[in-house]
Design a protein that fits this description.
The protein is rod-shaped and about 95 Å long. It is mainly α. The chain has a domain of about 35 residues.
């Protein structure tokens, strides 16, 4: 009795292929957004520090 082989579809045309490609795209997009967010936070803290770690000029100190 001959066996029937399932029809082979290319990966990109299957449903699982579309889902995997979408996951890859959203993963790459999330990674880019995380890197951009980190860079923006780093620049903000580097060029505009606030709080107890703010750099003061030596002329700002009052000497008694």
């Amino acid at each position: 009795m001959p066996t029937l082989k399932p029809k082979h579809r290319p990966f990109c045309f299957s449903v699982k292929g579309h889902v995997k490609m979408l996951r890859l795209v959203f993963g790459l997009l999330a990674a880019v957004c995380c890197i951009a967010d980190g860079v923006l936070i780093y620049r903000k803290l580097l060029f505009n520090p606030s709080g107890p770690y703010q750099k003061h000029s030596i002329h700002d100190k009052i000497v008694l």
